[in-house]
Every structure is written in C-alpha cells, then in structure tokens.
C-alpha cells in the first residue's frame, strides 16, 4: 500500500497556518479523487447509515457495542483526531469538548481520562445510556444532529466527531450542522470530523458547505487502501463569515 498523504485546503486557508503534528509529509492537491473515495455502496454492515433508524434499536446497539473491532477503530480514530487538535499542548488547562454523535462514549472516555469535560450528543437513547454508564464526569444530551448542535454561543473550544458525519450528507443537514457549530465554538475554536463519505459527490458537498463557515483542511493518510480509507476534516473558527449570514 502506498503511504501517500494528501491535503486539501478549504477556501482562504493558508498552508502555513496548518498545524500538522510531527514530521508528516502531505501533498497539497485540489483533486478530490486522490482521497480514495471510490463510490463504495456497501451494505448495512459496512455502511450502517444505510440502515437508518434501525441502528438506534437496543438489539443493534448491543451488537455494535459488543464488536471489539469497532471499538478499537473508534479509539484509533479518536487519538488521530486529538493529535490533529494538538491535544497534548492543552496541558493542565481544563477544557470543554463537544463530542458530536458520541454513541456509547468511546471518544468521551478518552478525553475524560485526560482530565477534560465532555458534552456528548447523540440521537440514540440506548447509546447515551451506555455512554453515561461508561463515564463519570461527562454530560450527554439526546439531540438530532441533522437539526444542528444548538448550545449557547462560544461555549466550546474543541469539538470532535468520529464516524458520524456520513449520516448527514445532505445540503440542509450539513448547513445546519456547520452553521450552529461555528456559533457555539469560541473564536479560533477547532473541530475535527472523521467520516466515510459514500461517493465523491458526498465529499464535494461536505467541503463546499464547511467552507461557508470555516477555514481548515481535509487530510487522508491511506488513500491507496482498498478498504478503510480514513478522512479527517479539520475546521477552525476564524472565518470572516458570521454564523447566520448564509
């Protein structure tokens, strides 16, 4: 497998403002095809968003939580996302993170273990019940992310979302999400979304909606993999666009 790494910059983002961690070498490109999205259709197992509301039932939730491979992947993607957020530089400051589509709280657990507070949102009551059981300090709110993430302005400095955004790749859902996210993030607040777009046009739409409200970039570490391509969308709230201008 070719160990290529590609980066796509959102509108008005300068390359010298991209805070890469370590000595990673990324190739700058505007060719979205290089990011390894191969119009995969997949079934309900590989593409749970295809199953829709069925995934919220207790039976499916129990099956998902029992899958150790899913948990391991979730943890790996969380650590990668936190690395992009330069998590280690936060030090002893106690920050409040937003975990979008928190599920059973895997990402929230990792952040809590570092001494930070997390507010997790998810549409599934069953998953939230498990998240509350698995953590001690965090708050969890039932919320349909397709309507946006509605909290008071500038309450969060960081937001994270792992394996969720592909559920909401419709223009009005994405605009709701990114518009409200810009409103609730502090100035220069940051967010990282790891997601699995089904088709290249999904990726194009996601990027075009995100750059209405944020600067940032898209990265892929494994674009030549046959399966398991991992994409990370990094957003920073220093755009000149006001949250409700669009």
Automatic annotation (TrEMBL):
Keywords: Methyltransferase, Transferase. It comes from Mytilus galloprovincialis (Mediterranean mussel). It comes from the Eukaryota. The keyword Transferase applies. Pfam families: Methyltransf_11. Its EC number is 2.1.1.309. GO terms for molecular function: rRNA (guanine) methyltransferase activity. This is 18S rRNA (Guanine1575-N7)-methyltransferase. GO terms for cellular component: nucleolus. Residues 98-193 form the Methyltransferase type domain. One of its GO terms (biological process) is rRNA (guanine-N7)-methylation.
């Amino acid at each position: 497998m070719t160990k290529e790494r590609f980066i796509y910059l959102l509108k008005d983002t300068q390359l010298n403002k991209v805070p890469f961690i370590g000595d990673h070498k990324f190739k700058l490109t505007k060719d979205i095809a290089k990011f390894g999205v191969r119009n995969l259709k997949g079934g309900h197992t590989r593409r749970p968003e295809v199953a829709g509301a069925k995934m919220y039932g207790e039976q499916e939730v129990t099956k998902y939580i029992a899958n150790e491979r899913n948990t391991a992947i979730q943890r790996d993607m969380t650590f990668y996302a936190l690395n992009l957020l330069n998590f280690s530089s936060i030090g002893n400051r106690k920050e409040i993170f937003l975990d979008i589509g928190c599920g059973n709280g895997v990402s929230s657990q990792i952040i809590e273990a570092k001494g930070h507070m997390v507010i997790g949102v998810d549409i599934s009551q069953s998953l939230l019940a498990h998240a509350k059981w698995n953590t001690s300090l965090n708050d969890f709110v039932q919320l349909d992310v397709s309507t946006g993430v509605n909290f008071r302005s500038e309450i969060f400095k960081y937001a994270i979302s792992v394996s969720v955004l592909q559920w909401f790749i419709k223009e009005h859902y994405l605009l709701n999400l990114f518009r409200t996210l810009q409103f609730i993030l502090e100035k220069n607040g940051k967010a990282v979304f790891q997601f699995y777009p089904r088709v290249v046009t999904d990726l194009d739409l996601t990027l075009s909606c995100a750059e209405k409200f944020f600067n940032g970039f898209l990265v892929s570490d494994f674009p030549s993999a046959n399966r398991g391509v991992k994409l990370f969308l990094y957003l920073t709230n220093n755009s000149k666009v006001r949250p409700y201008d669009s």
